[in-house]
Amino acid sequence: MIHTDIVIIGAGITGTAVARALSRYNASICVVDSASDIAEGATKANSGIIHAGFDAKPGTLKARYNILGSKMYPDLCASLGVPYRMCGALVIAFSDDDITVLKELEIRGRQNGVPGLRMIRQHEILDMEPNLNPEVVAALDVPSSAIVSPYEIAFAMADDAAVNGVCFSFDQPVVSIRYTDNSWQVRTSSDTYICRSVINCAGASGALIHNMYSKNHLSMIHRRGQYYLLDRSPVQPFSRTVFQCPTKMGKGVLVSPTVHGNLIIGPNAEDISDPLDTATTAKGLSEVLSRAGLTWPEISVRSNITNFSGVRAHLETDDFVVGSVAGSPGAFEAIGIESPGLSSAPAIADDLAGMVADYLSLTKKSSIVFYSVSEKPFHQMTDAERKEAVSKNPLHGNIICRCEVVTEAEIRAAIRRPVGARTIDGIKRRTRAGMGRCQGGFCSPRVASILSEELGCSLREITKGGGSGRLLSGTVAEFLKAGESFD
Amino acid sequence: MTDQYVDILIIGAGPAGLAAAISARESGMESVLVLERESEPGGILRQCIHNGFGLHRFHEELTGPEYAQRDIDRIRELDIRVECGVTVLSLSAQRIVTCVSPVYGFRTIRAGAVVLAMGCRERPRGALCTPGTRCAGIFSAGTAQRFVNLEGWMPGKRVVILGSGDIGLIMARRMTLQGANVLACVEIMPYSSGLNRNIVQCLQDYDIPLYLSHTVTDIRGRDRLEGLTVSRVDENRNPVPGTEIDFECDTLLLSCGLIPENELSSGAGVEISGITAGPVVNNHFETSVPGIFACGNVLHVHDLVDHVSDESFKAGRAAASFVNSNNVSIGFITIKDGAGVRGTVPQKIRLDLSENTELMFRPSAVFRNATVIAEADGKVIAQKKAMIFTPGEMASITLKPKDISSVSGNSLTIRIESED
After folding, report:
1. Which residue in the list A3, A51, A260, A396 is annotated as catalytic?
2. CATH number of the domain residue A120 falls in
3. What domain range is A206 assigned to?
4. How buried is A61 (Cβ within 10 angstroms: 0-12 exposed, 13-18 middle, 19+ buried)?
C-alpha cells in the first residue's frame, strides 16, 4: 500500500509532461505504467511532427492545445537538451478540389496564428522538393512545422520529473480504481496506491481506465497507423515534411525527414479492436507504400531499416477530453490524445497540472532542479570534442553501436539516467544503439551484457522490450544438460 | 597535422585484413598497422567453430579459429602491429583516418596506402519488410552464432530459419546439436543461396525441411516470439494466399544475405558498385580513390574464406607496390556483366596487366552444362565450361595478359552461355 497525493496513469508524452508540470508543486506523485519503460505506447510510434496548427478546427481543444503546445516546443526541447528542428512542411495539391481545401487550411491557419503560411505553385514546389511528384499543382508552404524525437522528449521529461521527486513504476497495469473514504484507491497488478487525485493519461487505454472511475462509460476507437523508417543518409529525398491534402478518406500519408536524418513514411489508418496490437501487416504496409507514391513517385524502400505501428486513441467526438471528471472528485483525464497530441502535450500538461494544483490547493516548490540531457551525442561531436570526450572518459573509446556510433560510456549513462533504461529497446531509444542499418545485429549482445552488468542481473533476465520478452533462453550448458535428461 | 604516419594502414583484422598485412610486409613494407574493433584478431572466423575452412589454401579441413590462427601466427612471426579494440570513425580521400579506443584514445593516422578489410554485415528484418510484431526472439543468424559459440547462450528452443545463406544453414546444425528444435529452413528463391555441402551436412543430415519458394509472411508474439506464418511465393516472390503454414516457435533466425560494410569507404568518396555493394576496383584491388584498396567481404561477399585470403594477399601486395612506386595505370579495360552474370570483380583491368588475373562473379540463376565466356570486340577471348553454375557459389574465369593485349576496344563482357 502506497500513500501518495497524486497517481498519474500512463508514462507517455502526456503523462510525463503532466508529471513534470506537477513536480513543480509540493506534492507526492507516482506515475504508473503497464509497460516496462517510458513512451511504450503511441509516443514511441508516431510521425514525430510538431504541427504548426493549420489543420485544427478553431474552437476545438485540439486547436487550442496544438497552437499553445507547438509554441512551447522550441524552448522545451532546448531546456531538456533534446533535438528539435523547424524543417517546414508542404501540404500538396493535385487538383482544383485540393486547392480549395488548401485555401481553407490557409485561412484556418491564419485564424490560428500560424506564421509564414503561403500558397505556392508547381515550379517553386519542385525547386524546394525536387523528388516530389511533378504533377503537383499547388502547395501550402508551412515554414513553422517542426520535427522532434517524441520518445526522447518523454524520457527527458520523465527524468526532469524524477529529479524533482516524482516516482515512476513500470510493469504495473491498473486493474481497478475505487473512490472510498474521500480518497482514490488505484490497484495495479502488484501494488495499491491510496491518493487524493488520479490522472488518466493512458493513451490508447484511456477509455478502459476512464470506465474504472466514471459511471459515464466511454468507448474509444483504436486506429492503427503503420510506418516505414528508412536509413540515415546525408542527403534524403525530402528536406521537409510533405503532407498530402486531407480528404474525406483521411489525412493521407506523410513523407518526412526525422531529426536523426532518417526518412519516415506513413501512417495508414485502420480501426482495430486491441489497443495493444502494434503488429504491422502486409496489407497495411503495402497501403502505406502505394499512398506515399502519390507524394514520391520514385519511392524506394530499399534502405528500409524497420517497420512499426502505433495506435491512435480516437474518440467519436474527434476532439480531446481534458480536465476534471464530473461525478468523480479528484479524477482528471487527458483522453483521445491522438494527433496533434504530441504537439499539444506540454500545453495540456500545464492546464491539467494547474487544475490538479487548484483542486489539491498545492503550493509551488521554492526550488526546482532543471534537468537536461547535457552530453552531446558522440555521433554528433567534432573531432576535437571526441578527443576530449575520450580523454576524459576512456569508455567513449569503445564504440558499441557502429551504425549509429554509440559509445560504451553513452550506454552506461543511459542506464544511470534518473529513469534509466532497463531493456535493449530502452537503450535503443535513449542512445540510438541498435537504431541503425544493422538493427542491433552487431551491438545487441554487447548492450545486453552491459545491461546485465549495470543492473546486477544475469544475462537471462535481460529483455528486448520488457515483459516476458527475454532475449535468451538459457546457457548452452543448460540446454545440453536438458538434452541428456531426455535420453 | 596527424598524430601518426604509417605506410600501410589496414582496417579490419579478419581474414582479409590479416592476409593483406602479411603480404604487404612480405613485399617489403616495414610500417604496417592493422586496426581491429574487436578485442582479438580473426574477424567472423572467431565464431565459426565448425570445420570446412582451408580446403583450398591448406588442403585440410580447419575450424574458423584454426584457420585464423595460422594467419595470426604468421602476423606475429613477421612482427606486424595489430591494435585491437580500435574503431575507425572516418576515412578521407587523403588517406587520413580518425579512430578511437579506450586504450589509445582518439587519434588521426595518415597512411601511404589504406586497405579496406571491414567485412560485411547481415541483412536485418527491416530490409525484408516482413510484417508482424516486433518481439524478442528474432536474430540475424550471425548474432545467434555469436551468442551460442562465443558467449555460451542459447537464443531459443524452437527455431525457424528464414533464408538459406550459409550462416543460417550452419546455425540450423549448431542449434540442433546444442539441443534446440529446428523446425524449418525457409527460402524465398527456388534455389538455396548457400553452399550445396551445407544443405546436405546441415539440413538433410538432421532431417530439417527446406522450404524453397517460401517466405515468412507474419510474425506473432507480443513480448517474445510465439509463432509465425510461412507462405509459398509465386514467380514474382509474392505470397500465394491459401498456402500458409503456421509454426509455433520462439526463435526466428535470419540468413537473408550479407551487405559489404562500406560506410567508411563512402565517406572517403570511394565509388561503390550498385551490384556488389562493394567498391569498384581494378585488378590491383585499388578503388576509385588512388591508394585506397579493398579486399574480402567488404569488396564482395565470398562463399569461401580461402578466396578471401587469396584476394587479400594480392591487395596487400598491390598496396605495397603503390607505396613503393606510386604507379598509375595508363588506362583500363572495363569489365561488364553479360547474360547470366552478376557483380564481376574486379570491374576494371589495367592495360599494363603483367600476370594472370581472375575475374569472380555470381551466376544470376542456375545454369547446367554451361560455358562462361569473356568476350571483347565481338569475339571470344577466353572461356571455361562447368557442369553447373548456381547463385549460391561464386564462379570465376582467368584472363592472361595476352588476352587483354588482344582487346582493341575499352570493354570486355563476361557472360554465361547455357547449352540447355
Report:
1. A51
2. 3.30.9.10
3. 1-84+148-219+315-374
4. buried
> Has this prediction a pTM greater than 0.80?
yes
Digit-coded pLDDT (tens) for A312-327? 999 999 999 999 999 9
* Residue B82 distance to chain A (closest CA, Å): 17
Contacts of B262 in chain A (CB under 8 A): none
Beta carbons of B100 and A441 less than 8 Å apart: no
Overall average pLDDT of the B144-162 stretch: 97
- Secondary structure class of B210 (helix, strand, coil): strand
Q: How many residues in chain A? A: 487
CA A480 to chain CA mean position, Å:
43
Residue in B with minimal Cα distance to A285: B131
Task: Name the residue range of residue B13's domain.
Answer: 1-122+258-328
Taking an 8 Å cut-off on Cβ atoms, the answer to whether A472 and B147 are in contact is: yes
Instruction: Encode pLDDT of A424-480 as tens digits.
Output: 999 999 999 999 989 999 999 999 999 999 999 999 999 999 999 999 999 999 998
Number of domains present in the structure of chain A: 3
User: Chain B residues with CB inside 8 Å of A460's CB?
Assistant: 153
Going by C-beta distance under 8 Å and a sequence separation of 6 or more, which residues neighbour residue B409? B333, B376, B377
DSSP B80-113: -EEEES-EEEEE-TTSEEEEEETTTEEEEEEEEE
Residue A25: inside a domain:
yes
A479: closest chain B residue by CA? B179
Question: Which chain B residues are Cβ-neighbours of A478 within 8 angstroms?
Answer: 154
A51 counts as catalytic: yes
Q: What is the CATH number of the domain that holds B344?
A: 2.60.40
Contacts of B108 (CB under 8 A, 6+ apart): A383, B1, B2, B3, B4, B96, B97, B98
- Note whether B179 contacts A276, CB cutoff 8 Å: no
Of the candidates A291, A311, A331, which is a domain's last residue? A311
pLDDT of residue A487: 42
Does A386 sit within 8 Å of B106, measured CB to CB? yes
